Amino acid sequence: MRTIHVAVAGLGFVGRETVRLLRANRERFRGRLGADVELAAVADRDVHREARRLGLPVSVLRVRDPRRLASLPGIDIVVEVLGGLDAPRALALSSLKTGRHLVTANKRLLSHCWDELRRAAARGSARLYFEASVAGGIPVLQALDNGFAANRIEAVYGILNGTTNYILSSLEHAGPGATMQSALAQAQAAGFAEKDPTMDLSGEDSVQKVSVLASLLTGRALPPGRIARQGITGIERQDIDFALGTLSRTPRLLGVLRLDWGKTVRLEAHVFPTLVPLEHPLAAVRRQYNAVMVKASHADDLMFYGKGAGPGPTASAVVGDVFMLCRDILGAAPSKPRPPVKVELIPVSESVSPYYLRLFAQDKPGVLAKIAAALGRRGISIASIHQSDVPAKDGVPIVLTTHPAKLGAFKAALREILGLGSVARRHTMLRMLP
Amino acid sequence: MRTIHVAVAGLGFVGRETVRLLRANRERFRGRLGADVELAAVADRDVHREARRLGLPVSVLRVRDPRRLASLPGIDIVVEVLGGLDAPRALALSSLKTGRHLVTANKRLLSHCWDELRRAAARGSARLYFEASVAGGIPVLQALDNGFAANRIEAVYGILNGTTNYILSSLEHAGPGATMQSALAQAQAAGFAEKDPTMDLSGEDSVQKVSVLASLLTGRALPPGRIARQGITGIERQDIDFALGTLSRTPRLLGVLRLDWGKTVRLEAHVFPTLVPLEHPLAAVRRQYNAVMVKASHADDLMFYGKGAGPGPTASAVVGDVFMLCRDILGAAPSKPRPPVKVELIPVSESVSPYYLRLFAQDKPGVLAKIAAALGRRGISIASIHQSDVPAKDGVPIVLTTHPAKLGAFKAALREILGLGSVARRHTMLRMLP
């Protein structure tokens, strides 16, 4: 019986759970694959301590420097769950170049080094699997790759970050004293936000995932720097209350990828806080859960919902990838990644959405007319306008929603509006799902 | 370059869409598989007319009798989308026995003939794929088979029937005159219910899907007759209004499969209308959509949401299966189906749930006490009780909800309650998600 040798780089929470799952599934994988899937080596700074804690047999090689895994003879699959960028990059490139297949959960590595990884894989005739990098334990990349093989994927969008979703959804039914700041503190206490939550709150984490999805579907790099983003820090409690009470909507941080399949694929890619109708399935996604909507040419609208992070879900996706790679290895002619297509990134200013805008204006005649004129001049029509009679510090709050408009036109109108002497600089701007 | 030959039996809506998708994807599949996937033969009662309408080249063989496809030389994959039971069964068995891989969307065939199909596949060393048979275009079977390869699947449950979901969800926000009957008529007019909707309304369609899921996960037949079911015809508009207004819940017809993995797998399998909390993701599943919840040992709670029927979604799943089979065929050692495990079906009377019960009682002292006593004697405690002061035809409506209890005990109490002279026979009983 053939044996497939696997090496795991990184024995943190995810790495340890990966090792446990690989070992717990030996019998089942042997039954289903007709081959042994064997843990052959592990790498970690504290490799001896961690290997002892895991009760690994002496036959499992232990190394301190993960890069050594790529030069060990006989390794078929390298699993990279190190964290960081430089060490994963070095390990991934040398593994792929020398013909070792690679499984990684590292969205930062994938989004920043896609072209390098692709070239290295081509050189070594090796494959790269990365299910865990987007939406954790949800097998959405396998679905996009295999289940929807017969479809054109027209859009992939959704809640790709658990931290921001935990914060936003916790404010939906919170007491009157709760603020974005208190919700963040609560998320940190519950273990769903990092001490430094910048990557999550700024939308950068979601941007990396949109980048990975774009690369999977087009075969081309789309570096994070080319993806427009807005985080959730500008949202105030009042926006959430108003959206719920008056618009029957709730804010979610959405990563969006739309693909228009012509000879060149026109791509729309961005991350924005977005007001979602309460009856939309994404509004039912609460706490740390992730959800990915897929619009496919034939399977139509789908949603994949589950836990986007945590050692269990991440290791589940990593070992699922190992299983698929074993199928490939044991087969003579595994399926190839999609050949790269020509891609044109649509400028985010061309992206169309209805908008939500909360402003503070001096309560005097003509202000509303000027605001409406600034929008109207750019062909943007107002869907609803709500003026409170309770003046706040910066003036009377005005909330308006628009019909779908291009972001560029809306931003130009917004600049004009904020330049009116009678309107405060302070404002909240959100997209809305149509 | 190797060519894989595919035959399609049945050129109805799904069959025609399957043929179109196979032909439209030739280039892409060649790129990803390094092989040609060619439509070699079609079968239909009106095969010449349908082939002409599809514009098939003369090289595609046309036959009237689908069973002939199994004896054509050189066919690698037979796609069965005939409908019915006898002709599909004959075609499936002879295809598998003679080493043709089979793709089917036919839940009735799978649920009624699992053991026969399995034996035929073993005899011919052929594989059987059936993604489209459960939840249409949602690739949930592939996910269970591959993406969750490293997990124990502890439960699969959800909305497996679009017709009943269309009816139930349309009543959530319907005008005061709407009834189950008017909602059914509307579903029929919109094309989401058959002229004879018995299979759907009775829960039998969902039962067949639970049976297929059980067989996929255990390798064993679980014939539909062994799966307890209750349809939606007993639900009245008042139950929905009360559930929404007072319990913050909404009814959904849920197919449920729970698996307790010991040496023998203890299975719980049934289909019941169930009150789902409004904040649960299943409550956000409306109209004809399906949704499958998965509880996996490591990936944890997931939901797959999408269209469960229709030619586009069904053909998408069918051709996704063809793509996976091509990967298997081109590989030397494809993954095997799960080896059958020992299975013990838990009697549905042992199944535990909280319950909703609406009764009509005469408005006289002591009735509530007798009802409570009937429950209490069986260890069932009441969670809430609501008595209306507006008497209806059969008496005063009483709605009560219980804490979790075994179905057998609850039904015994119900029999006693309905035998009280002061309680009408008419009642509604629903499960509730905890």
List its traits.
Dihydrodipicolinate Reductase, domain 2, Alpha-Beta Plaits, 6-stranded parallel β-sheet, 19 strands, Rossmann fold, 3 domains, alpha/beta, homodimer, 11-stranded mixed β-sheet, 434 residues, elongated
Gist?
The structure is a homodimer of 434-residue chains. Chain A is built from 14 helices and 19 strands. By secondary structure, the first copy, chain A, is of the alpha/beta class.
Specify the overall morphology of chain A. elongated
How much β-strand is present in the residues of chain A?
Answer: 25-35%
Tell me about the largest β-sheet of chain A. 11 strands, mixed
Query: Largest inter-chain interface?
Result: A-B, 68 and 67 residues
Q: How many H/I helices of chain A?
A: 14
**CATH architectural name of the largest domain in chain A:** 2-Layer Sandwich
CATH class of the largest domain in chain A: Alpha Beta
How does the helix and strand content of chain A classify structurally?
alpha/beta
Distance between the termini of chain A: 56 Å
Helix content of chain A: 25-40%
What's the name of the CATH homologous superfamily of the largest domain in chain A?
Dihydrodipicolinate Reductase, domain 2
- Report the average pLDDT across residues of chain A: 93
Give the oligomer, counting copies of the same chain as homo and different chains as hetero: homodimer
Per DSSP E runs of 2 or more residues, the count of β-strands of chain A stands at: 19
Spans of chain A of at least 5 consecutive residues whose pLDDT stays below 50 are: none
Q: What is the CA-based Rg of chain A, rounded?
A: 24 Å
Domain unit count of chain A: 3
> What is the fold-level CATH name, i.e. the topology of the largest domain in chain A?
Dihydrodipicolinate Reductase, domain 2
